[in-house]
Design goal:
five-stranded antiparallel β-sheet, seven-stranded antiparallel β-sheet, binds flavin-adenine dinucleotide, alpha+beta
Length: 511
């Protein structure tokens, strides 16, 4: 089995047709259309049920849940009932959207009931005027296809079609269109959440960004506060969604490891970082270009740049290639093809890392990597004392329209980065866990040795890393910066019993 690269992981995922389900008739939801089919569920799946193994499995094989029950739901009412049951019987509950979490939050052995949103996948235009409604069990691929074919618009979200809207949006959501159109949450108008009050009663609440909305703080917490913190999101509403380019140039450039010495490695990665730093302003004309440079271990064969520009903007790609080649003696292979937007977005591959054990870490960067960091990256990628099958760090373009938003306007606070780095270790053998985890931990620690082993510009909550619990700065600062106390206030108000928690969840004030 070939190890999954970052590109494999991001581009992968089969896209299945969304079942056409009614909007929930819950009090907080819009009324269902008259000709609607009844919703799926609720279905109680117990451990001896043939469906159980599929429902507790996820892309990252390091984690497999063992809940007493998985409740498959298809309406807001059903979510309210499931949450109420869990609270009444004193069982810890967690919600599964697309199942793409990189940590074991949903699979924690203490979780006794998992609410699975597989029946909440509808995407429609809300007649009440809230905009486009996307139910939280839909995958990004389902949302992209429905929004595009239905209305010619899209979410500027992540590049893996199998990722769930449920967790992705709550954590901010960035993707190939974010440098032009911002994060997904920059378009979030409203959210419906099933919450539990101090008395233990579950109910659905709609919170909007309207300044006069008394629930506005709950909306704000879902603009980057992260999943599994405040309640179960049943749907998101978006207004002013962008139109994607009709066609785009999808490119892949590979610099072979053969002939790539440390000096060449420094040039390539350093040139990319400098290009990003020059072009991360909100008005940069290069904001139309998205790219990720995957620096891999030698057994991968080379370092790969992949990305896209709108059709007609090839010059941006050509300029990037010239910038990356500055002072570099290694000749890359270049392939580029023009594709319709949706075909390029959904991709042709079908592998979201299933079968691999994964550990990831992240870091925002305002500036290019320093020489010391480049040296550390080269050293760890070329280490010969490890048999890690897949190890890489991916440098992704960031900024552009993302950086036009003030850091406190949304819970997603990182609004001045030029890159987000994604560190990945992937392997198959459970017996190798500790040594491969050690590799990525040492790599990350050395990259940020000057700042106590942690990235000074913060980390991305949608790439959660439980190792940060023992970091030299509180993990909450890295993920949320100065927005964390405000998130704690929201927690106190909307989840006073801390029903929804996991290893990196927002803590009630004072904890
Ligand atoms: C292959 C791959 C590619 C990725 N690419 C990108 C990318 O390009 N850009 C990017 O920004 N991120 C990306 N991510 C990260 C992704 O956005 C997060 O992992 C996200 O949290 C996944 O959401 P999910 O619903 O699929 O996961 P789940 O595992 O179902 O949930 C993740 C967390 O959110 C909670 N949650 C899920 N649904 C809800 C809900 N309805 N209400 C409340 N809490 C909920 C869960 O309880 C859990 O704590 C990628 C991840 C993977 C595995």
């Amino acid at each position: 089995m070939n190890p999954p690269s970052r590109r494999d992981l991001l581009r992968a995922g089969a896209v299945t047709s969304a079942a056409v389900l009614c909007p929930s008739p819950a009090a907080a939801s819009p009324p269902p259309p008259a000709d609607c089919a009844p919703p799926l569920g609720p279905v109680r799946v117990l451990p001896d049920d043939p469906r159980y193994a599929d429902l507790v499995r996820r892309g990252n094989r390091r984690f497999v849940g063992r809940p007493d029950e998985v409740r498959v739901v298809g309406s807001t009412d059903q979510v309210v009932s499931a949450v109420q049951d869990a609270v009444r019987t004193g069982r810890r509950v967690a919600v599964r959207g697309g199942g793409h979490c990189f940590e074991g939050f949903v699979d924690d052995p203490a979780v006794r009931m998992v609410i699975d949103l597989s029946g909440l996948t509808e995407v429609y235009h809300d007649p009440r005027g809230h905009g486009f409604a996307v139910e939280a069990g839909a995958t990004l691929g389902e949302a992209y296809r429905r929004l595009f074919f239905g209305w010619g618009v899209t979410l500027p979200g992540g590049s893996c079609p199998g990722v769930g809207v449920g967790g992705h949006v709550a954590g901010g959501g960035y993707g190939r269109l974010s440098r032009v159109h911002g994060l997904v949450v920059d378009h979030l108008y409203a959210v419906e959440v099933v919450v539990v009050d101090r008395g233990g009663t579950a109910r659905a609440v709609v919170a909007t960004r309207e300044p006069t909305d008394p629930h506005r703080d709950l909306w704000w917490a879902h603009t980057g506060g992260g999943g599994g913190n405040f309640g179960v999101v049943t749907r998101y509403w978006f207004r002013s969604l962008p139109t994607p380019p009709a066609r785009l140039l999808d490119f892949t450039v590979t610099w072979p490891w053969a002939g790539m010495d440390e000096r060449g490695f420094h040039r390539l990665a350093g040139n990319f970082g400098r290009w990003c730093a020059r072009h991360s302003g909100p008005d940069s004309r290069a904001r139309h270009l998205y790219a990720e440079l995957i620096l891999s271990r030698p057994q991968a064969g080379g370092h790969t740049l992949s990305g896209q520009v709108p059709h007609g903007s090839r010059h941006l790609f050509d300029e990037l290639l010239v910038a990356l080649g500055d002072g570099l003696d290694v000749t890359p292979t270049v392939s580029a093809q023009t594709l319709p937007w949706l075909a390029a977005t959904l991709g042709g591959e079908n592998d979201d890392g299933k079968g691999w054990r994964l550990k990831v870490k992240s870091a925002f960067h305002r500036a290019a990597l320093s020489d010391r960091q480049l040296h550390a990256a080269y050293r760890h990628l070329t280490r010969t004392d490890t048999d890690l099958p897949a190890g890489s760090v991916s440098l992704n373009t960031y900024g552009g329209a993302i950086n036009a938003v003030p850091p406190a306007a949304t819970a997603a606070t990182h609004r001045s980065a030029s890159m987000v780095l994604f560190y990945l270790a992937g392997w198959a053998d459970p017996a190798a866990d500790s040594r491969h985890l050690a590799w990525i931990r040492e790599f990350y620690r050395d990259m940020y040795a000057d700042t106590g082993g942690i990235p000074p510009d913060g980390a991305y909550v949608n790439y959660p890393d439980v190792d940060l619990r023992t970091a030299s700065r509180p993990w909450s600062e890295l993920y949320y910066g100065p927005n964390y106390p405000r998130l704690q206030q929201v927690k106190a108000r909307w989840d006073p019993r801390d029903v929804f928690h996991h290893d990196l969840s927002v803590r009630p004030p004072g904890r």
